[in-house]
Amino acid sequence: MGSIVEDADTDTVVYVAVGKNAYKTQQLLHWTVKNFSGKEICLLHIHQPHSLNSFSDRNLSGYEPKDHATKAFQEHGNQTVHKLLDQYVLTLVPAGVRAYKLLIEMDDIEKGITKAIAQHNIRWLVMGAAADRYNLGEYSKHTSDIETGPALLVLNPNTDAKQFENIKSESIPVGALKYFDSYDMKEIKSVSSHLSLNSKWPFNNVMMDRSKLADLMFHEDKTFESQCAKEIRRRKEVEEQLAREKQEVQKMKNQRDEILEELQMVQDQNSALMNQISESQCTETELEEKIISAVDLLISFREQRDRLRIEHANAVREVKVLRKIGEADTSFSYRVEFPAFSFVEINEATNDFDPSWKIGEGRYGSVYKGQLRNMHVAIKMLPSYGCQSLLEFQHQVEVLSRVRHPNLLTLMGSCAESRSLVYEYINNGSLESHLAHKEKNPLPWQIRISIATDICSALIFLHSSEPCIIHGNLKPSKVLLDANFVAKLSDLGIPSLVQRSLDSADTSTICNNPNERLAYVDPEYFVTGKLTPESDVYSFGVILLQLLTGRPLLGLVRDMKCALEKENLKAVLDSSAGEWPFFQTEQLAYLALRCCEKTWLNRPDLVSEIWSVLEPFKATCIDTPPHLISKKLRRIPSHFVCPIVQEVMEDPYIAADGFTYEEEAIRGWLNSGHDTSPMTNLKLDHTDLVPNYALHNAILEWQQQ
Ligand SMILES: Nc1ncnc2c1ncn2[C@@H]1O[C@H](COP(=O)(O)OP(=O)(O)OP(=O)(O)O)[C@@H](O)[C@H]1O
């Protein structure tokens, strides 16, 4: 509590130490006003803030006050003291005295007074009759016997003696008070009687009876106590309320924590579900891809199956035909079923053997392209000087015409007169021209594998025929490629149509490069003079090496062996074919080397060893996405191609022979007087045509890829 007299002039201020006893205080003030007229009065009160002992003293049911209760109590005490001091100040107003309050908080009253004296430089201090109870240090040395009357402590050693005397003589009733000079602290006069205030004092009429006052004080104490108890009760209630609310808050916090935990769990579950969803989406995509590839595979299997069915049907028919032929007169059947062309027709077809229509020349004659009976044909003119008799020729040709396979060049007819053979025209060059890069685009590895498979398929067919047919002159120039890069072996059986003497004597004269031709010939043939199925395997091995490497024949086998030994196959592979699948290519390279073994016994079997490697290899080529193969080089499924015009069919129709043809082409064939199958040359049961919708749809689908 701060002082309100700090700026006051210490000489004009009289300090009056007041307690809580109103009665005593009134007496003291009354005295002071009377004896210090004209001076200002400062009410000094030492407030004991920690007098909580009074609580326990008052026996408040063992209540242990808490901090806030203590504070409240102190606050209340402070307010009460201020109120009391204010009342004291008010009692001085009628007397026209200017009064102040000085409240000092101190547990010890003596120390409080001493502190006030020192801090405020107090010169005049009036204390009650009990002043001597307090040990004011030096100030109280001579006050021990003062019992009843007010005491004036003159504390300033510089107090004017005259002024002091004036006060003493004029204002202070003799015998009522005791004076102290703080300078010499000498007792001036002892107070022997109990203070009885002068009846002339104006305060007398407001003074109460002592007992009344005591009652009043007691009552006030009681009120204070009940207020305290009330306050404590209220506090207790508030605390209980607070505790309840605290519990409620705690409960809500717990609930919130539970909800948060649940939320976390839900979030975890959510993220786990999201993971599951993305995983299942991945799986779904994978499965979709698998389904697509399975469907593709199924389509290719169906295509294969269809092709095989056709082949099977062909084979069955051929067997029947051959049986019939075997039973019937050969010359008769030839005349009936195998087209024979006149020399005039051949002449017309080749535009009088126009040199610009000549497409090649080999040991066994020249080859012209031509247009015969609305068909594109290649006509091979055999050397007349080396040929057999007419009958022999006709018989041989007829036998050859029965040998049909999708990978064998179809013999469409002959002209016995001019000893010429009429073949289907293959418009995409030979394997030789492709490997020599005479064509625009290098063959991709997928096409090369397909070509190898085609050759192998044709050889298996020939070798398994009854009797076994040996090609005997297999080399890249004999492998013709149609528009769909389907390989067709040409020149089957030609040597048998030409005199043997010529065959063995020709090499240096007709062949451009005899060494190259010999590179494909089985080494055992030079020893035994005999061609065997393994001779074809040898030639096939050399072609295989050329397909893999695209290298010249010279040192080909040696280079491949070396590369495989050094595990550096890539160095010899033809990189223009694209990225070869390593494992299968390596397998094939080993196989090719085995085919090229000098001893036929060491060569692999066509079916069990070569086909079993090539066939699955080819399947992977089919799996290769079409967009990875240049459109120009894309393999067209062979059954999409019309056997007559060799183009993808737009309106496929099934004829009585079971084969499907382009409608326009087959109608043209039938309308030009034919009643035989263009494929088998057998007589057709009828000439009705049925649209092949399934194939039509398959072609459309394939074209949209
Ligand atoms: N049906 C055909 N369609 C298109 N071109 C063909 C056909 N038959 C042969 N040829 C072409 O004629 C060329 C000559 O073929 P041919 O079979 O007469 O001789 P070769 O194979 O080059 O050599 P050789 O017969 O002396 O071993 C072939 O390289 C080929 O380009």
UniProtKB/TrEMBL annotation:
Q: One matching Pfam family, short form?
A: U-box
Q: Where is the U-box domain?
A: 635-705
Q: Which GO terms describe its molecular function?
A: ATP binding; protein kinase activity; ubiquitin protein ligase activity
Which keywords describe this protein according to UniProt?
A: ATP-binding, Coiled coil, Nucleotide-binding, Transferase, Ubl conjugation pathway
Location of the Protein kinase domain: 353-618
- Reactions catalysed according to its record: S-ubiquitinyl-[E2 ubiquitin-conjugating enzyme]-L-cysteine + [acceptor protein]-L-lysine = [E2 ubiquitin-conjugating enzyme]-L-cysteine + N(6)-ubiquitinyl-[acceptor protein]-L-lysine
Give the E.C. number(s). Answer: 2.3.2.27
Gene3D superfamilies xref list: HUPs, Phosphorylase Kinase, domain 1, Transferase(Phosphotransferase) domain 1, Zinc/RING finger domain, C3HC4 (zinc finger)
Kindly tell me the pathway this chain contributes to.
Answer: Protein modification; protein ubiquitination
PROSITE patterns from the UniProt entry? PROTEIN_KINASE_ATP (PS00107), PROTEIN_KINASE_DOM (PS50011), U_BOX (PS51698)
Q: Which residues form a coiled coil?
A: 228-276
Record-linked InterPro entries: Kinase-like_dom_sf, Prot_kinase_dom, Protein_kinase_ATP_BS, Rossmann-like_a/b/a_fold, Ser-Thr/Tyr_kinase_cat_dom, U-box_ubiquitin_ligases, Ubox_domain, Znf_RING/FYVE/PHD
Residues binding ATP are K380
Gene Ontology terms describing biological process? protein ubiquitination
Q: Which domain of life is it from?
A: Eukaryota
Its function? Functions as an E3 ubiquitin ligase.
Q: What is this protein called?
A: RING-type E3 ubiquitin transferase
| Organism whose genome encodes this protein | Glycine soja (Wild soybean)
